[in-house]
Design brief:
By secondary structure, this protein is an alpha/beta fold. The protein has two domains: about 300 residues, TIM Barrel (Alpha-Beta Barrel), CATH 3.20.20.140; about 110 residues, no CATH class. The chain has 20 helices and 25 strands. Strands 1, 2, 3, 4, 5, 18, 23, 24 and 25 form a nine-stranded mixed sheet that branches. It has a six-stranded parallel sheet with strand order 9-10-11-12-13-17. Strand 1 and strand 2 form a beta hairpin. Helix 5 packs across helix 7 and helix 8 runs parallel beside helix 9. It is globular, with a radius of gyration of 23 Å. It starts with a strand and ends in a 10-residue tail after the last strand.
């Protein structure tokens, strides 16, 4: 007879506490870790971890799987990066609460803010709910390859309470604010981990309208925060342009003070005109004053992926390219090889709507060819502008020629945040700060333009092993950041550490051979929709609630993941 359901033997346990690794076995029974050390009893299932590291399962607190969880059991790409818990409903967007006549409005908002095509959402969403508790009840019946936590999205909530006035960003009345407060408390009582909102002009519907929550007044934001106080738990997630840093932070401080609940704020170099260090300084002061705020940060640049298989390419809005964009890739390449077509595309001007993206590319100085494995801290001398100059070629002609090579599979990378200085020193500073937490991966979103669900693997490979252009970070700190710290940031205290009594979410990793593969497009979404996938090598096993969900990167039949309430 066996004593345990699972025993992982002989690995280096980096337990999530920040402590140095130690060689140990990990025994699991009934979904819970029961022993860490020398385990003498046998397991029904055993994993040999000699030469590997054993970590807690990774907790990703900033995703957008709100639609995908209603039609899929496997939350790719996150599943391929050792993630065992995700939190969705970020940035104030989601699909509940919702009245039937507002379905299209929420789809347009998600399509615009998170680049999830409307056709996919229209076909995939069942809309078997109206209230937030009903949405949670639907999800509670489903099974996943990881646990899923949900937040109440302010934009959806605002439209539910205020109708078109909410979508038009009109001020809420005291009665409407009171109703939003009630629904927040009701949603948290039904199991939501908190509430989220957006105050950035970058978040628009697919028709170009700003997000409904953009200009919500302080009294309304305070109502949401006090809804958390009424519930007695929950966290607040915030993204803002912070155009008036002083005024905005007074709002945020007031919300945290009134609710007694923590807040996290998106933080990256280049996202705010006031500068990330100014924002971090405000967060530091708030914590010094007893108000728990964290900056949500990323381990690498946030950047657009461009190519012939992706949503956009460097020539997307040029007239001569738009004439052939609907062609299959092979036919498009053939057309692009025609000298007349080439000359026409290169001589066309980008549309005014592409000006911001064009500016971010900085004449090719901020464009790199993403290799396999991808390099997310590329050197200036390998940019498209530098390579074109070395080849004696115009930069856009050079990019054009690379675009049609390799059967059109080449992908370009253009960072728009965290890479102003052509290095990741800013990320290192943010990662190591006492008042930050790892986030911003947007797993499940930006399906054809960004693939940052792989942030988690980059955190370990780049910062813990491979970085050549600056200082690295010790592995115990990195593991703690993506396990214990992310779990505690959303008030989850049953996971994130390899210790007796904790939930048996684990990763067994061949760290010396852990690597990211290049992102690629796959067609597995509803309505035949495409999305980025990015797989890995080196994850020997991922365990959720004591069941092995992935072995050597391949899915098992186990789906132990459930909705977190």
């Amino acid at each position: 007879m066996t004593e345990f359901d699972l025993v992982v033997r002989g690995g280096e346990v980096i337990d999530g506490s920040g402590a140095e690794g130690r060689t140990a076995d990990v025994a699991v029974r009934d979904g819970t870790i029961v022993e860490v050390g020398q385990v003498n009893g046998k397991g029904t299932q055993e994993i040999a971890a000699d030469g590997a590291i054993i970590t807690p399962g990774f907790v990703d607190i900033h995703t957008h799987y709100d639609g995908q969880v209603t039609w899929a059991n496997r939350l790719h790409p996150s599943s391929h990066h050792g993630v065992t818990t995700v939190v969705m409903g970020n940035c104030g967007v989601g699909f509940a609460p919702v009245r039937p006549h507002d379905h299209d409005m929420l789809v347009e908002l998600m399509e615009g803010v998170e680049d999830i095509p409307g056709a996919i959402l229209h076909e995939g969403l069942s809309w078997d709910w109206e209230t937030f508790p009903e949405y949670m009840d639907v999800l509670a019946q489903r099974q996943f390859d990881m646990d899923v936590g949900a937040q109440i999205p302010h934009a959806a909530l605002r439209v539910y309470v205020m109708g078109q006035r909410g979508a038009d960003r009109e001020p809420a009345t005291p009665a409407e604010t009171a109703e939003m407060r009630r629904i927040v408390a009701e949603g948290v009582a039904a199991g939501a981990l908190g509430v989220s909102t957006s105050r950035t002009l970058n978040h628009r519907t697919s028709k170009g309208a700003p997000t409904p929550s953009l200009k919500a007044e302080y009294e309304e934001l305070l109502g949401l925060a006090v809804g958390l106080k009424d519930a007695g738990r929950g966290v607040f997630e915030m993204i803002s342009d912070l155009d008036d840093l002083e005024e905005e932070f007074e709002f945020f401080r007031g919300m945290v003070a009134a609710s007694g609940r923590p807040m996290s704020i998106s933080l990256a170099q280049g996202l705010n005109t006031c500068g990330w260090r100014a924002v971090l300084g405000k967060i530091e002061q708030a914590n010094a004053d007893g108000l728990v705020m964290r900056g949500q940060v990323a381990p690498r640049p946030i950047g657009i992926l461009m190519g012939l298989t992706t949503t956009i390419c460097p020539f997307t809005t040029r007239k001569a390219y738009k004439e052939i964009v609907a062609l299959p890739v092979a036919e498009r390449i053939k057309a692009m090889r025609d000298p007349a077509r080439r000359a026409a595309i290169l001589s066309d001007k980008p549309s005014p709507g592409f000006a911001v993206m064009q500016g971010k590319m900085d004449g090719g100085n901020k464009v790199w060819l993403l290799g396999d494995p991808p390099d997310y801290e590329p050197a200036p001398e390998s940019s498209m502008a530098a390579r074109a100059a070395a080849a004696g070629q115009d930069v856009w002609s050079y990019i054009y020629d690379r675009l049609i090579e390799n059967e059109g599979r080449n992908i370009f990378y253009s960072p728009f945040a965290n890479y102003e200085d052509d290095n990741l020193d800013c990320c290192r500073e943010m990662i190591l700060h006492d008042n930050t937490v790892m986030g911003l991966s947007d797993g499940g979103a930006h399906v054809g333009t960004i693939c940052d669900a792989s942030f988690i693997t980059t955190l370990f490979t780049h910062w813990g092993r491979d970085r050549a252009r600056g200082e690295r970070i010790d592995l115990p700190t990195l593991v703690k950041n993506q396990t214990h710290d992310t779990a505690r940031a959303v008030d989850l205290h049953d996971r994130g550490v390899v210790a007796a009594g904790m939930k048996a979410d684990l990763n067994v990793i061949d760290f010396n051979n852990l690597n990211l593969r290049a992102p690629e497009m796959v067609q597995d979404l509803p309505a035949g929709g495409s999305r980025f996938e990015q797989k890995t090598n080196g994850y020997l096993a991922t365990v959720v609630s004591g069941e092995v969900t992935y072995r050597d990167g391949e899915a098992t039949d186990a789906l132990p993941g459930r909705l977190i309430r």
